[in-house]
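Notes for week 9. Today we move from apo structures to complexes. The key idea is that a small molecule is not decoration. When we ask for a structure prediction with ribulose-5-phosphate present, the ligand SMILES becomes part of the input, just like the chain. The input block below holds both the sequence and the ligand string. Read it once before you look at the output, and try to guess where the molecule might sit.
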Amino acid sequence: MATPTLQVALDLLELDRAVEIADEAVRGGADWIEVGTPLIKSEGMQAVRTLRERFPGHEIVADMKIADTGAVEVEMAAKSGAGVVCILADADDAVIVEAVRSARKYGVRLMADLINVADPVSRSRELAALGVDYINAHVGIDQQMIGRSSLDLLRRLAGEVGVPIAVAGGLDAETASEAVAAGASVVIVGGNIVKAADVTGAARRVREAIDRPEIRPREEESRDAAIRRLFEAVSAPNVTDAMHRKGSMAGVVSICGRVKAVGPAVTVRTLAGDWAKPVEAIDVAAPGDVLVVRNEGRTDVAPWGELATHSAKNRGVAGIVIDGAVRDVDDIREMKFPVFATATVPNAGDPKGLGEINTEIVCCGQEVRPGDWIVADESGVVVVPRERAYEVARRAMEVRKNEERIREEIRRGRTLSEVSELLKWEKRH
Ligand SMILES: O=C(CO)[C@H](O)[C@H](O)COP(=O)(O)O
């Protein structure tokens, strides 16, 4: 079998940055350069022309995701310099047939993208029979965020289709190896190369994985373990960015400075600083849970202090968030236990047993249900609805990766406004 091709997907909005990143990716061993759909939507065919001119020795792939007017869109991409043009596998056969005719006329190849196709094996066979040159086992970025896997899709197709198979969707060096072993002829990598601070290094690692695939058995990971791993690797700001700037509690700060708490919420409602329910909740919590206490926002009386912190720490509780005051701050700081509160005050309430454990509460402006995920660090506290926890954790990791490349470009001397083309992307009114 010929060495599989490494295609780098430039899923960016800015052409200048795309050219710079393509240059670095090529130095790391990328063969084909994909003008990603966002770049085409942002810059049009000029992006294809520019990349064609700048990289004369490399195949340019135009990810048009054609859904209609197959002939015209293939013609546009071909005349701009693309050698491979992408069409949606789900498009009507009438569109596919016209696209194939146009591709033959202009001497380019067609790649059909299986994103969201219900029966990928039979559709791939139909597409091959219609004259499509490559099938792309693609799981889109939004689908990846809810846990779909491009490798699973690729494995379903292996040996079933008579044309070369490309694979795309969240691949990195490790999964690129698996993709080659599963029969991929073209390995398409976007985010894990183009969002890296060191694009050349990231591309080189994928290149090496493709050239010398080394498959290590992957450890099974539960959903909850993956959620925790991802949330522990990102910041609270990354998480609220991933939630369209929602989820932040207002006015609550870390009492111990640089600490972090991640875990499902055990909720507590108490009244007037009554510390019975918050302390009983320590026994209800499992290791790794975060206690979230509503104390009516009162800052004049504390339902939490040093002894409770000591007990929570022993039990493996990951942290505590209170919409009110805590006390014994000096001792808590010595323990470096993640405590987040809106105030400090010396006096406690009495343990009368008012309130409830594990009911829905509102804490610092956010609704919190038992089991919702809490991510708290020095910037503050974010609540993630439990049913969206995996998706938000994946998206937060994408936010973090994206910032890595932006940080690198700022380090090289550009301003944040330049990197993000702020003026161009201001909302028009
Ligand atoms: O076509 C795409 C999204 O629709 C991407 O180019 C493709 O998914 C590869 O990027 P990534 O590796 O980040 O998933």
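The pocket of ribulose-5-phosphate is lined by residues 9, 11, 36-37, 63, 140-141, 168-171, 188-192 (CB under 6 Å).
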